[in-house]
Amino acid sequence: MDRIADIWGPRTPHARGTVWPARVDRHLQEGVAEEDVERWVRSACVLCSNGCGCEIAVRDGRMVGVRGVATDVVNHGRLGPKGLYGSWDWANSPDRLTRPLVRENGRLVETDWDTAMARIAEVSRRLLDEKGPLSHGFYTTGQLFLEEYYTLAVIGKAGLGTPHMDGNTRLCTATSAAAFKESFGTDGQPGSYTDIEHCDAIFLFGHNMPETQTVLWARVLDRTRADDPPKVVCVDPRRTKVAEEAERTGGVHLAPRVGTNMALMNGLTRELFANGRVDTAWVERHTLGVDDLRATVEPYTPEETARICGVDAEDVRRAARIFGESERVLSTVLQGFYQSHQATAAAVAVHNLHLLRGMIGRPGAGVLQMNGQPTAQNTRECGADGDLPGFRNWSNPAHVRELAELWNVDEMTIPHWAPPTHAMQIFRYAEQGSIGLLWISATNPAVSMPESARVRRILGGEQCFVVVQDLFLTETARLADVVLPAAGWGEKSGCFTNVNRTVHLSEKAVEPPGEARSDLDIFLMYADAMDFRDRDGAPLIKWRTPEEAFDAWRECSRGRPCDYSGLSYDKLRGPTGIPWPCTDEHPEGVDRLYGDGVFNTDPELCETYGHDLLTGGTVTPTEYRAKGPAGRAFLKGAPYVPPHEEASEEYPLLFTTGRTVYHFHTRTKTGRSRNLNDAAPDVWVELSVPDARRLGIAEGDRVRVESPRGAMEARARVGQVMEGAVFAPFHYGHWDLDEVVPEDFSRQANELTMTIWDPVSKQPYFKTAACRVVRVADGDGPAPAPTTTASRPVDPSVPPTRGGPGASTVAEVVDGFVPSYPNDPALPSGDTGHIAEVSAPGRS
Amino acid sequence: MPHLATYVGLLHHSERSLAEALRTVGEGHAAEADVYHVCDTLAKMSEEHVRRLEPIVRRYGEQRHGDDVEEPERLYADGPGEIRKGPVGLLRDLQDLYVLATLVQTTWTAVGQAAQGVRDRELLELAQASETETGRQLSWLTTRLKAAAPQALIVAP
Ligand code: SF4
């Protein structure tokens, strides 16, 4: 079966409330038969936030394939195209980094580890002496393992004492975390994937799930293609596969104008109030702020919403009616909200809808604020981004004291005088030279950050010493002063946690190439070189192996919402991943949070005291305590305000960017998979039919897109985007081109995007920029965009996207096998380790 | 009520100064993208207060009978004329904004009290709504100041 052409694989439809059937997907390298595989090593896929349980095929010391794990709660054996084709073959690529590099006379030259690390330690020590710890910044990723993040967090926060640590998760998932904190008191996904099996409506807010999390979409399709499908509601400016499914199931496709999500959310919320769809008793008991919210949304009548958003007023009413009349609604949210104007406020508004209906914490009534990156959840939990480990509150002295005791350091060492510095600010400090050492691990900001030309200038400048640790010489690594070769997935062991809190252990299958080392070993090496000590003079980092690091983390998480204390490597070697909190009380983990209607808003428990959603101004501890939340969730609203850059005469169109199915991150791995790369080998630009006609642009023509900040060139796809909007995928850098592209010929979508971020989550906006499009030259064929996805062409003569040789895979439906998952709600309650699905008191 | 009229005038003037000052600081520190954009949001709040105050100012102005109610110049506060440069400059400019915003806030408090006394519902409602919004302006200024201070005072060149 060609899974490039058939992205989601064969259907296994099933009725509501029954277990999602198992189907095992497998792909082996061309010429390798199943019997040639020497070992299957347990892991989970690290190419999107779904985290599908899988096994790595090993032969002759190399990874040669992958297959899904039928008993895993996340995927029931399935894998998507990225997992099948992109998981492992990058590892055998001839251009892997195998030795450290240092910059000599402007050029990167090979060296040994001692030399490279000595150079870093020397700069680090000098900066510490001259300027102190605030001269150090760390920019990490959403792709390392939990053990590595935790180690990095301890080095940064207790060894150096710098608040300047963040992950590229800031670009993709920060809003999800921020929204949870604002509504529920702490980070932590309330819902579960098993809600898909129980819901009678699914709302996807700015979430192109068919392309970003393909296996999860297969799970949705297996419900919508059964006899009792849930209604799908799609909020997206493009006619995605979700929009098609909305049509099929009698739902709605709302395509709001780019930058107007908040107005739409206010319109939907107002409809619930106006039509008496609020569960007043539940709201009274379990929430705070309903009156303010009602007043805030009052002006957003369906007509006013329609006017602002460019949607149909009747569609707003219909969508709200579906939400209001369904018993069990599952909502999912992703980049269409997170990377867009008023991101946190809009994501919080989704929580509001659920809280107003008392639809949280029971089967089918859930919220999934998605992640873009696979291990983003761990960056957040472990404190390698702008948080303290274990969802601790930087402005709560008791929380800081706990960490100081755990690490045996002076409380004053741990920076907590202000919120930890977010990525965009870290880069600004690096630009100004007040951060003199910037250490980037496993991410590629030269391609992924907004206004890429500016980022290249910052990284390439003399004012800041840049360390990059990665698998390949990425666009970012080329600008570094020291490059460290890292081991990747399958070449090291460690745990990671997917969107819905499910923890997997990924075990080392093969040796890394050359002198490459695991990220954990690299961080430990730095800690040794710097000789970080605790208060008693003992080494600060007391672990050497991943398992020891995991055990240290377990202690750090104990008693916090993300409690890992019941987990161990041994336990994770069992049949399935396990969702936290996992404790003595819940040895098989917990499927969904807040079933009792008690939220983590107690002042001693919460992770933040909250913010003003419009400005990001913080609520003081005193103000927070005065509200007396006592476990109630917050209903928080905000008015719609127009986006920072609107269409004008000079730039009449709105530019929006996104991820597409065959790519992940900046294509460092997926671009090296022949099958994935061939399916979408180059960037493209999507235009609507009327805009293309007006501009005289035909399918495949070469166009130039310009914003006030920069330009890109690409071939045009005349496709499914709404009129007035222009879409480009944001993955394409220049590592796979023969020559470095000149700046005015860039194919990076982020040349155009603005340096601007959400005031609460500090997530940059990639979906609000004005642009103009000009035709540059005739095309010599269709755009290099896939036909299988939201980027399909209007022109029916474009040949369909197919996999090439070596794309064949197997998908075996496991007939008659009903898997038994400890947390599957289809099990009768009271079964082994099953968390009781208690209805909150007073809930209808 | 000559002094209430004076204070309404003071409000009108200082909200306008605050709006202007927010714009000046935002544009002057445009390289700090968040400062630029949030200052714009905050300036719009003050501009809206000014707009809603206008009919009230006219109303109180008419009651002043013109004789002895000269608005004393020294009541007025002016915004930062020129923008300071660099991280420490930003810190100082934020402090200036803060001082100006507290003047606005306490003036709203005073006017709100008087509005109760004279049972001026329109003014009272405006005073309450505006005071809340000035609180949001102050809270952002403090938040941003706290975030900027360590780097500016310890490490900035
Ligand atoms: S859905 Fe995500 S985690 Fe699962 S196989 Fe595909 S890329 Fe991997």
TrEMBL record, chain A:
<keyword id="KW-0004">4Fe-4S</keyword>
<keyword id="KW-0479">Metal-binding</keyword>
<dbReference type="GO" id="GO:0051539">
    <property type="term" value="F:4 iron, 4 sulfur cluster binding"/>
</dbReference>
<dbReference type="GO" id="GO:0046872">
    <property type="term" value="F:metal ion binding"/>
</dbReference>
<feature type="region of interest" description="Disordered">
    <location>
        <begin position="780"/>
        <end position="844"/>
    </location>
</feature>
<dbReference type="InterPro" id="IPR006963">
    <property type="entry name" value="Mopterin_OxRdtase_4Fe-4S_dom"/>
</dbReference>
<dbReference type="Pfam" id="PF01568">
    <property type="entry name" value="Molydop_binding"/>
</dbReference>
<protein>
    <submittedName>
        <fullName>Molybdopterin-dependent oxidoreductase</fullName>
    </submittedName>
</protein>
<dbReference type="GO" id="GO:0043546">
    <property type="term" value="F:molybdopterin cofactor binding"/>
</dbReference>
<dbReference type="Pfam" id="PF04879">
    <property type="entry name" value="Molybdop_Fe4S4"/>
</dbReference>
<keyword id="KW-0560">Oxidoreductase</keyword>
<dbReference type="InterPro" id="IPR041957">
    <property type="entry name" value="CT_Nitrate-R-NapA-like"/>
</dbReference>
<keyword id="KW-0411">Iron-sulfur</keyword>
<feature type="domain" description="4Fe-4S Mo/W bis-MGD-type">
    <location>
        <begin position="38"/>
        <end position="94"/>
    </location>
</feature>
<dbReference type="InterPro" id="IPR050123">
    <property type="entry name" value="Prok_molybdopt-oxidoreductase"/>
</dbReference>
<dbReference type="GO" id="GO:0016491">
    <property type="term" value="F:oxidoreductase activity"/>
</dbReference>
<comment type="similarity">
    <text>Belongs to the prokaryotic molybdopterin-containing oxidoreductase family. NasA/NapA/NarB subfamily.</text>
</comment>
<dbReference type="InterPro" id="IPR009010">
    <property type="entry name" value="Asp_de-COase-like_dom_sf"/>
</dbReference>
<keyword id="KW-0408">Iron</keyword>
<dbReference type="InterPro" id="IPR006656">
    <property type="entry name" value="Mopterin_OxRdtase"/>
</dbReference>
<dbReference type="Pfam" id="PF00384">
    <property type="entry name" value="Molybdopterin"/>
</dbReference>
<keyword id="KW-0500">Molybdenum</keyword>
Automatic annotation (TrEMBL), chain B:
<protein>
    <submittedName>
        <fullName>Uncharacterized protein</fullName>
    </submittedName>
</protein>
<dbReference type="InterPro" id="IPR012347">
    <property type="entry name" value="Ferritin-like"/>
</dbReference>
